[in-house]
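Bit of a strange request maybe. I'm writing a small parser for structure token strings and I need a real example to test against, not something I typed by hand. Could someone generate the tokens for this chain?
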Amino acid sequence: MFSLVCPRPVVRTNFRQRRFSSATFLTAILIAAVTLATTACSTLSASGTPSIATVPIAMSANFPAAIVGTSYNSVISVNGGIAPYTFLIRSGTLPPGLKLSASTGSISGMPSTVGNYTFTVAVTDKNADAEGVKAFAMSVQHQAPKPVSVEISPASVTIASGANYQFLALVSNANTPAVTWKASGGAITSAGLFTAPKVNTSTTFHLVATSVADPTVTASAMVNVDKAAPPPTTATALSLTSTALPEATEGTPYAAGLQASGGTTPYFWRISGSLPSGFSFNARQGAISGITSQSGAFAMIASVTDAAGHTASQKLTLSVSASSTGNFDGPAELPRAYVNSSLADTPAPGTVHFVSTPAA
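Reply from user aminoacidic:
Good idea to test on real output. This should exercise your parser:
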């Protein structure tokens, strides 16, 4: 049996080639070492702990115009990083009266100064691994005045041919209550007294009251003029006899009733305008009652309509004075409870018995 022996490889030494390969190898090792050292240094923070490259966070917000003296709130939304986030003003200033919440990113408060403001907000995430910076702008404006309004009372009425009728105009949110009157027929004075023309058929006329403070604001009313006067009757014309309301006191129970005469009962009452908070109005009794914490003068127009459809109106003012005593600090008092009742609800005296005086 023969053994197969592989020949030993012949190695030919090329001294030039070995010297070049060794140098190249040493150079590669040095470059790798420098790279590792540089990387290690760059991944160490000042405290010696590894740091991660910062990832950007996107911010967005819609800041509508703020109004001086009005509560304001708007939130900056973020996209990226890991919650919770931390917010701060990097540069610029917020409007006076507003502040940025460091934890929620909301800008809230009550602005106090009109102007345009620019500021830069920075946000970081949970471990400060991600950061975002963005510039924003916001404007603060004056409070817009309430619009002027005009109301005519009554808004619709039917009167006889050639008759007169007094209309009232109530103007709100204006520096003057004055209005100018116009009528599509008949005549109307500057005080709102309408005189119907003589008509042979029932006709409708339109009245317009225009605010002097703001001529673009108007109110309208409709007058139906009947061709025939109502049949004569012994009843007197309907009239609202209440010309003033008793003064109310803040924190004290109040009750007052409106009065009318003439016409045909029952009456139905109506108030146009505003009552103090806590006060209510009974339309069937014409009674105002309640307890209020407001003080001041409250303008209104009271109207009464009788069973025949006739209406009378009167402009009134309810004044509420501030309480001079404040909270009670003394002996107990009777309960502050009250019940509105009309004369018809009051029980009759019942049967009357006469007792003779015994003889002496």
